[in-house]
Specification:
Blueprint lengths: L3 H10 L3 E3 L9 H12 L2 E4 L8 E3 L5 H8 L4 H10 L9 E2 L2 H4 E3 L20 E11 L4 E13 L2 E4 L5 H11 L4 E7 L3 H8 L12 H5 L4 E4 L6 E3 L4 E14 L2 E2 L5 E2 L2 E14 L5 E2 L6 H22 L3 E6 L8 E6 L6 H12 L5 E6 L7 H11 L2 H4 E8 L11 E9 L6 H4 L7
Parallel strand pairs: 1-2, 3-16, 4-10, 18-19, 19-21
Antiparallel strand pairs: 2-3, 5-15, 6-7, 6-9, 7-8, 8-15, 9-12, 10-11, 12-15, 13-14, 17-18, 20-21
Helix pairs in contact: 4-9, 9-10
Length: 431
């Protein structure tokens, strides 16, 4: 049973969960508690003064928590699950009755646990929303995570990045149609992870869930639009992405910077339903570990997969937290020839186009220890032979130093020459 409530109960048994004993003002007050829980790797259950629903944050704010969800004990097992989910898709969903699982909500959008996290935010936000839509040209479905800014009692504005849901929206808009959607909040994290992956257009992300979790996903269909949603989530909203646009943002992105304000589509809400199972409403701290893991870990897996196809041994891959687990990577490899470092650099850039800087180190260096990485750069790197620079390539639009998404990429081969291995060996302490 893929239920966030069941997961929180399991984390309670492990001693991971804190409960706040008072309700919080949704404007700014939750953020300090969310940041402290994030810093300590804790799961936090709380409630806002404007909503009867209980919220939870931090359910996967560490690798340990996520790997437990995936049934993985180490990086490679988690990466394998993510990579293989694309080819081991399963549409053998169990189907449940919507009316048995969800009931009409008494309140409106304003009485959901939306939060204004920072002073510069454009408004109150829901930032863990899975949006499900039908693909009109392929008779399939799409599920993806989008932030929603509250506009009023019956409306949001959605940040619609130019990917699959945007394509569906544009196809409908060209034919003068609105896009019917289901918004899912408080789904199990493995469903959120599947929805954050990028399979080819026309592949329904929920088909990846079984490969990630080992469980058949239980779905139900919404009453008005007949869209498939998880049987166990906190809130399901039926609505339409309209042709109307308004200003969306600012909002803090994965780099802990304000994403700029844009004209984005308005969602009109038809109905709000809440779980009869008392599921938790999921809140993700912007720029926090949960945000970084959901976005970054699939890219880390892609880099690992790309580099291991080019080199015989990849020891560890890390997208660094200071870069939002998005812009910088450190890769530890078992080097066999002096070209292996540059090969790893090129494979990493190919696997994750948003990547800006890559450092490749030998297998005696731990990418999780920045001081070891810096030591390797200080003692094993020479720019004349180990520096790779790619000018004006496609990068990340989140990088404020980029030129409309075009960036200079730098690779640093901080591995030692194979023929001089003995010169670079690190001394080991005697037990």
């Amino acid at each position: 049973m893929l239920s966030i409530r069941k997961l929180v109960e399991y984390q309670m048994e492990l001693g991971y969960v804190d409960f706040l004993d008072r309700d919080l003002d949704p404007v700014l007050e939750p953020t300090k508690y969310l940041k402290e829980a994030d810093r300590r790797g804790r799961t936090l259950v709380f409630r806002t003064k404007t909503s009867p629903l209980y919220a939870v944050s931090g359910v996967i704010n560490s690798r340990e928590k996520l790997y437990r969800v995936l049934g993985a004990s180490r990086d490679e097992e988690a990466y394998e699950k993510l990579i293989k989910s694309f080819t081991q898709r399963s549409s053998s969903f169990r189907i449940a009755s919507f009316s048995d699982l969800y009931g009409k909500y008494d309140g409106d959008v304003r009485s959901l646990p939306a939060i204004k996290f920072y002073e510069g935010d454009g408004g109150l936000y829901i930032d863990s929303s899975i949006v499900v839509a039908r693909t009109p040209d392929l008779e399939s479905y799409n599920a993806s995570i989008h932030r929603l800014m509250v506009l009023g009692g019956d409306a949001f504005v959605i940040r619609l990045v130019p990917r699959h849901l945007h394509r569906i929206y544009e196809l409908n808009r060209r034919h003068g149609r609105e896009t019917p959607i289901a918004i899912v909040i408080g789904a199990h994290p493995v469903i959120e992870l599947a929805s954050s992956l990028s399979p080819p257009y026309g592949v329904f992300e929920f088909e990846l869930v079984k490969a990630l979790s080992g469980e058949d996903l239980e779905l139900t269909y919404t009453p008005k639009y007949g869209l498939p949603v998880p049987a166990y989530s906190s809130v399901v909203i039926e609505g339409r992405i309209t042709g109307e646009t308004v200003s969306e943002g600012p909002f803090v992105d994965i780099l802990s910077l304000y994403d700029r304000t844009r004209q984005q589509p308005v969602i009109k809400v038809d109905s709000i339903y809440v779980s009869k199972n008392r599921e938790y409403f999921h809140v993700i701290l912007p720029g926090g570990w949960e945000h970084m893991i959901l976005m970054g870990l699939p890219r880390e897996a892609a880099i690992w997969d790309s580099v291991r196809k080019a080199l015989p041994c990849v020891r560890k891959v890390r997208l660094t937290p200071a870069s939002g687990m998005w812009l910088h990577a450190v890769i530890s490899v078992c080097k066999e020839t002096d070209g292996d470092g540059k090969t790893a650099i090129m494979a990493a850039f190919a696997a994750h186009p948003s990547l800006k800087h890559v450092v490749v180190v030998d297998d005696d260096i731990d990418p999780d220890k920045p001081e070891e990485v810096e030591w390797a750069v200080a003692t094993r790197f020479q720019a004349s032979r180990g520096l790779v620079v790619v000018h004006h390539a496609r990068g990340s639009t989140l990088d404020p130093s980029s030129d409309d998404g075009l960036t200079d990429k730098v690779g640093i081969d901080a591995t030692f020459p194979v023929r001089l291995r003995d010169l670079f060996l690190r001394p080991r302490a005697v037990d």
